[in-house]
């Protein structure tokens, strides 16, 4: 009977399609995260298509990912990759790395050493998650790049005109991003947040409060109407010179923050 019925189920005409958002139940993310941290393996079996299954895995924290800068910094060929990304940025592309896939093959002895340390951390009654993450992170070095996906992140319609109107109204604009310096500057120019008439300075890769003090003094003397500052330097500013930094930065027509962590973005926005 089923075979006869199935013989009719071809060359069908679509009447309609119903699509609903299948939301996760409460605390699914936290539960799966606890199970993963306990070292329990999880197999998710579904009838969904590949893209949907991967999306569900990320949204439920069954899969996670690092910031691409974090992964690249742990790879053997990080200097070459950084040059390629810089070339794309300077070539007029608002390059955005969507995904980085890297791997590392472990010798048996190294894996055994890792397994012993991980099991010890997993059984700890104090700071278990932190100890497990530390052991996992110890393996994430000298990685081999498998592949990188890069797309051009185009501006939305009328962004240029909108930012130009805001500037002309005398409103200060701070752009905070996780992108690298070259990409952030390229986006600022393509969006007209910066123009060829602007004079900007860069504060980057500062290691001490003395360096920050020198840069802030230089900035306060005038001659610049825009600033580009990276997250590494901002960390020192927040710890030692936050009030002084705000006093200087509020006189600039725009500030571009790059390589910022989510915490730094939230602090600057508040």
What does this structure look like?
The chain is an alpha/beta fold. The protein folds into 3 domains: 22-64, no CATH class; 68-152, no CATH class; 159-269, Rossmann fold, CATH 3.40.50. The protein contains 13 helices and 6 strands. The chain has helices at residues 2-6, 28-37, 50-59, 68-72, 78-90, 108-122, 128-137, 159-168, 181-190, 209-220, 231-240, 242-249, 262-269, and strands at 95-103, 144-152, 173-176, 200-203, 226-230, 254-258. A 4-stranded parallel β-sheet has the order 3-6-5-4, with helices on both faces. Strands 1-2 form a two-stranded antiparallel sheet. Helix 6 runs antiparallel to helix 7 (128-137). The termini are far apart. The mean pLDDT is 81.
Secondary structure elements and pairings:
Layout: H1 2-6, H2 28-37, H3 50-59, H4 68-72, H5 78-90, E1 95-103, H6 108-122, H7 128-137, E2 144-152, H8 159-168, E3 173-176, H9 181-190, E4 200-203, H10 209-220, E5 226-230, H11 231-240, H12 242-249, E6 254-258, H13 262-269
Strand arrangement within the widest β-sheet reads: 3-6-5-4
Number of discrete helical segments:
13
Gross geometry? extended
Query: What is Rg?
Result: 25 Å
Q: In percent, how much strand structure appears in the residues?
A: 5-15%
Q: What number of domains?
A: 3
What are the segments in which pLDDT stays under 50 over at least 5 consecutive residues? none
Q: Secondary-structure element sequence? A: HHHHHEHHEHEHEHEHHEH
* Sheet having the most strands: 4 strands, parallel
| Beta strands, count | 6
Q: Under the CATH scheme, which architecture of the largest domain would be assigned?
A: 3-Layer(aba) Sandwich
Which CATH top level class of the largest domain fits? Alpha Beta
Q: CATH topology of the largest domain, what is it called?
A: Rossmann fold
């Amino acid at each position: 009977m089923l075979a006869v019925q199935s013989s009719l189920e071809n060359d069908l005409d679509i009447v309609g399609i119903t699509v609903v958002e299948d939301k996760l139940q409460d605390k699914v993310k936290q539960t799966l995260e606890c199970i993963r941290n306990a070292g329990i393996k999880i197999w998710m079996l579904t009838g969904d298509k590949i893209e949907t299954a991967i999306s569900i895995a990320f949204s439920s924290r069954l899969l996670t990912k690092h910031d691409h800068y974090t992964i690249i910094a742990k790879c053997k060929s990080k200097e070459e990759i950084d040059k390629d990304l810089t070339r794309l940025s300077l070539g007029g592309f608002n390059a955005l790395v969507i995904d980085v896939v890297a791997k590392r093959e472990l010798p048996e002895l190294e894996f055994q050493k890792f397994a012993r340390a991980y099991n010890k951390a997993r059984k700890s009654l104090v700071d278990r998650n932190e100890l497990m993450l530390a052991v996992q992170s110890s393996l994430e070095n000298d990685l081999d790049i498998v592949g990188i996906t890069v797309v051009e992140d185009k501006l939305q319609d009328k962004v240029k005109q909108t930012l130009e109107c805001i500037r002309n109204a005398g409103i200060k604009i701070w752009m905070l991003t996780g992108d690298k310096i070259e990409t952030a500057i390229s986006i600022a120019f393509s969006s007209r947040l910066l123009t060829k008439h602007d004079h900007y300075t860069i504060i980057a890769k500062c290691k001490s409060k003395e360096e920050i003090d020198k840069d802030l003094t230089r900035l306060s003397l005038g001659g610049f109407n825009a600033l580009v500052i990276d997250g590494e330097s901002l960390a020192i500013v927040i710890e030692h010179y936050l009030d002084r930094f705000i006093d200087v930065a509020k006189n600039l027509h725009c500030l571009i923050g790059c390589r910022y962590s989510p915490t730094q973005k939230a602090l600057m926005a508040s």
